[in-house]
Amino acid sequence: MQRGELDHAKSPTDRDRASYFPENYLPVEKSKQWSLLEGDAEIAPGVEVVRVPGHNADMMCLRLTGGGKTVFFTADLIPTAAHVPFPWIMGYDLYPVTTLENKKKWIPQAASEEWLVIFGHEARTPAGYLRERQGKYELEPVMIDI
Length: 146
What we know:
The radius of gyration is 16 Å and the shape is globular. It has helices at residues 3-10, 22-30, 96-112, and strands spanning 41-44, 47-51, 60-66, 69-73, 116-118, 127-133, 136-141. It is α+β, with helices and mostly antiparallel strands. The chain has 3 helices and 7 strands, in the order H-H-E-E-E-E-H-E-E-E.
């Protein structure tokens, strides 16, 4: 977990107070089970967390690499397939302009490097590949068998 995210959870704003429940994080903190990060980190071979602010100041995405492939869990950067277009940003985001900047960074990279993207809030199309067509990015859905 990002250290800044834990600090924010302890002192949230009125806008996002409903997202942070002390009973969800204080027991973990008291038992000293956090691995607090300050920025990007490889937490295991092929498992990297990347700080992608926008939704909040210290949101992280997860990038898994191995066997010549990459999977990118977009968290709230791209919460649903409908949020693939750059200007489609959640109303919950605390820093929407930063979200836009990060989408312009990560979406082209995911498309050009053919990463499988996983959406955290998408029920119908939870995964796919981003494809650039005429300057816009579209999702090529992939079915995941769990």
